[in-house]
Model the fold of this input.
Amino acid sequence: MAKDDTGSGEGVTGGQGGGSGGQTEEATMESSARGRVQAALGWPERAEEAEKKVEDLNTKVVALEQELATARAALAQLETRHRLERELEQAGAVDLQTAILLAELELTATEDANVESTVDALRTSKPYLFQNAAHGAAPSPWPSPGAISAAMTAHAPKSNDALTAAAAEAASTGDRAALLRYLQLRRRGA
Done:
């Protein structure tokens, strides 16, 4: 009965209950402190990983910027070539590929040259690359059939009517067969 009078049993139980509750709180604080210490100890590794990621991303950014600059330069070159082709076609270039190559050389040699002035300069310096404005056709390096016939007629003897008629026919028609007949008559001396 003494135990009941003193209440030590309840006190001990209450004390132990309170003590075990305190131990749980202390254990929780201790485990959270350990977690913070472990987290604090792991931050250098995380920081190094983050720095590596930043370096990798910076490298990728530099590579993408270089790629973008290359793509922009290629696009500008293609746009210039397209404008150049269009201008040369409008100017009446006969040999478009040669005209483009010469114009591109001029554009790269002169920093402040534009497409229009380059085409104009090419047209004045190399007129044989462009159609003749008066006739609407390219000047031919070969004489026309009429010019050949006229030259032959000038050298032909005037005595023979058949020869003169063949020469006139070849000159007026420009037909190869007529020219051949004329040449055969002339060779025979008819």
